[in-house]
Write a structure and sequence with these properties.
Strand content: over 45%
Distance between the termini: 29 Å
Mean pLDDT: 96
Radius of gyration: 16 Å
Helix content: under 10%
Number of helices: 0
Number of strands: 10
Strand order of the largest sheet: 1-10-9-6-7-8
Largest sheet: 6 strands, mixed
Low-confidence stretches: none
Shape: globular
Oligomer: single chain
Number of domains: 1
Amino acid sequence: MGEPQIFMPELFKEDENGTLRLVAGYCPESKNWTFPKYLADPVSFTDNIEERLLSPTGILHSFTIVRRSMPEYVVPYVLALVDFPDEVVRVMAQVETQDAGALTLGEDMGVTTGFIRKAEDDSDVISYKFIPVREMK
């Protein structure tokens, strides 16, 4: 088993306060946000895209508990759609939670990192995940 691998580290980073945030694209011409950051804006078709951070928290739109998946994904795990209303962006990711049964639609979700799957060499693959704000330390 190798060292943990970071999956797409360009999609997340800490802000100046040490809060983990998702890295999005913003087009000043159309005021459109995308996640992940696109090479061109799908609204105005311009390539004038700025890198900006999404809000530190979003709202749980929907979720499911995945019980059958590809072999590299350890089941069960929670997969969710989280809305970032200020940016009008919806993002899908796994959820880090102690109690999937306590998840409530509309609750505030933050961003964290954690195990998402196994790599071919059996090392852990780490990436961004959502976490209920009530479970954040």
